[in-house]
From TrEMBL:
GO terms for biological process: GMP biosynthetic process. GO terms for molecular function: glycosyltransferase activity; GMP synthase activity. This is Anthranilate phosphoribosyltransferase. Keywords: Glycosyltransferase, Transferase. One of its GO terms (cellular component) is cytosol. The keyword Glycoprotein does not apply. It comes from Capsicum annuum. PANTHER family: ANTHRANILATE PHOSPHORIBOSYLTRANSFERASE, GMP SYNTHASE-RELATED. The keyword Hydrolase does not apply. InterPro entries: Nuc_phospho_transferase (IPR035902). It comes from the Eukaryota.
Length: 585
């Protein structure tokens, strides 16, 4: 085995790993960066794990990435950028009944002036305001006027600005945008028949307009109505902002409108289940236990993201793990599992059937599937979601997926941030019929619990490390509707209670390279904050899900430590990188 040494400034870790990627691309073999110390200098040992197939045989489409060490570089350059002025306003107004921050007069005048100049083609030195932005912004304004409580309805400044600009806007905006802004002709104070008479073009758009009228009034839809709209509209055309079947403005208004109205259970279920069979029935892996990890798809921008390394640990003792996500997605555009795996040379284009094969492999036991391969219809919305700005209902529903099924027990783990979404997530998990479900308020809304002490001035609401879930207690038939009796639980995990020393979470600040460095060093057995977080999250998840051999929490942590200290977890991660490039359909 060849080994190469690159000296590295320990504070600037992206440089040597960037060289590693270039080395892999040029010599067609894997180079895995592992940090070590020789004397007082820090090095990356680049191990040639194995020869890979020639690049052209891997079917991998390398993205247009200027600096693969940073998460921001994974944004697809094909996507047109949104107008920043209107996007900043969307951040304030395209949110819930209590979180919305009305614009002041200066802000409102600036936004509407930008929209007017863009519609006239007179906007200089700025991106044009997209159709999707128009739909999201005016949908938010309409719902606030029709259904929000007084504190988050229009401010006097917004009303003054709209009175000034609407007589000009109505002459230049498309009819679908005018409909969104004033569907019944009752908001703007100018008698117009466009909104009340608008029906859309074609069957799909007519169905969408009918549903949108209810949403813009602050109302809710049935399960079949939501699924009907989604299946009419998706997928959007690859490489384009929208679909020829419907207006981008209308669909953007629909998605952000449903989130602002706070989705009902039946609406969330419609989003969650709509494309389960898009590629046919899910393959069934011959494994005794399978945990589906539902990390927020938009990644981490500040702190160490541990789930990929946790999956490698848990696979060592028979707890197979399936991760799913995307390469890059707004609003955060942070570090994702796909970015890390791509950076290390793994195949990130696996189909669900190929993932099943890796789950069954006794030398691997975990897998990652991109939404691009499993739910292409939903993946087609990434460009549109950037222009909507705020998270649509899909951001919740996509975390609760079963891309591969298991012969044995199944569990789902998902992260959340905003209080009130823990119960809807658990509802979706129960709807999936899994044996156990767990939601975690980890750092940045991810599933990663921390060993950091809770600050005395922490934000209100549920604390970081809050967990809620259910687990099976009886597999006998007729114990419940689906034959499984479950017990519910909730707990705030204090890592110090389990012997972990309080430590600050390592910062990564969008550095994919830094996140990989921390994870690999921990899997090599290097003790510290990253090691502790991997052990904490592996053992605690085992315990809370009721996994075999984890009833004693101390034993669960010891088992996770042994998986790392023996080198087994690192070996499985390296095996995954190698074998993922050799799988066949």
């Amino acid at each position: 085995m060849q080994a190469l040494l690159y000296p590295v400034d320990p504070l600037i870790s992206s440089q040597p790993i960037a060289k590693t990627r270039a080395l892999w691309n040029s010599q067609n073999s894997f180079r895995i960066p592992i940090k070590c110390w020789i004397g007082k200098r820090s090095y990356f040992v680049i191990n040639a794990v194995s020869d890979s197939a020639p690049i052209e045989e891997l079917r991998l489409q390398e993205p247009d990435i200027k600096n693969p060490a940073l998460s921001t570089s994974y944004r697809n350059s094909v996507f047109p950028k949104p107008n920043q002025t209107v996007l900043d306003a969307q951040t304030k107004v395209c949110t819930g009944p209590t979180q919305t921050k009305p614009l002041n007069e200066e802000q409102a005048f600036k936004v509407l002036d930008t929209i007017l100049r863009s519609a006239k083609g007179e906007l200089k030195d700025e991106e044009p305001v997209s159709k999707a932005q128009l739909g999201a912004f005016f949908s938010a304004m309409t719902i606030r006027a029709n259904a929000f409580p007084e504190p988050t309805q229009w401010s006097e400044g917004e009303r003054h600005a709209m009175n000034h600009y609407w007589p000009q806007l109505i002459r230049v905006l498309p009819e679908d945008t005018i409909f969104i802004a004033d569907p019944e002709g009752s908001i703007m104070g100018i008698g117009s028949s466009i909104g009340p008479q608008f029906v859309g073009n074609g069957t799909a758009e007519m169905r969408l307009v009918g549903a949108l009228r209810e949403v813009l009034a602050g109302g809710h839809l049935g399960y079949e109505e939501v699924q009907g709209v989604l299946k009419d509209v998706l997928p959007f055309k690859v490489g384009e902002m929208g679909s020829s079947r419907v207006s981008e403005s209308l669909f953007s208004a629909f998605m952000i409108g449903q989130r602002m109205n706070r989705e009902t259970d039946r609406e969330l279920k419609a989003y969650c289940l709509a494309f389960d069979d898009e590629l046919g029935p899910a393959p069934v892996a011959d494994v005794n236990s399978l945990t589906h990890y539902g990390e927020p798809y938009d990644g981490n921008t500040r702190y160490f993201r541990s789930t990929l390394f946790v999956a490698a640990v848990r696979s060592c003792y028979g707890e197979s793990c399936l991760l799913h996500g995307v390469d890059w997605i707004p609003p955060k555009g942070g570090i994702t599992e796909e970015q890390m795996l791509m950076f290390m040379g793994a195949n990130t284009h696996l189909t669900p059937s190929q993932a099943k094969w890796l789950l069954e492999d006794h030398e691997v036991g975990f897998a990652y599937v991109s939404q691009r391969e499993a739910r292409p219809s939903l993946y087609s919305l990434i460009g549109l979601r950037e222009h909507i700005k705020k998270r649509p209902p899909l951001a919740t529903a996509e975390k609760v997926q079963q891309i591969v099924r298991a012969r044995g027990k199944e569990a789902i783990v998902a992260g959340f941030y905003h209080e009130g979404y823990e119960e809807p997530l658990l509802m979706l998990m129960r709807r999936r019929g899994v044996h156990a479900g767990l939601v975690v308020k980890g750092e940045e809304g991810a599933v990663s619990m921390t060993t950091k002490l809770r600050s005395g001035n922490a934000s209100k609401g549920l604390p970081v490390n809050y967990c809620s879930g259910f687990r099976s207690v009886n597999l006998a038939p007729a114990c419940a509707v689906d034959g499984v009796s479950r017990e519910s639980f909730n707990i705030e995990v204090n890592a110090r209670d389990y012997g972990f020393a309080p430590t600050d979470t390592p910062r990564t600040d969008r550095s994919v390279a830094r996140n990989i460095e921390l994870g690999l060093a921990a899997l090599r057995g290097e003790k510290g904050p990253a090691y502790d977080r991997i052990v904490l999250n592996a053992g605690m998840v085992d315990h809370l899900l009721g996994s075999d051999g984890a009833q004693d929490i101390s034993a669960a942590f010891d088992r996770a430590r042994e998986a790392i200290d023996s080198g087994n977890a690192l070996r499985r991660l390296l095996n995954y990188i190698k074998i993922s490039n050799k799988v066949i359909s």
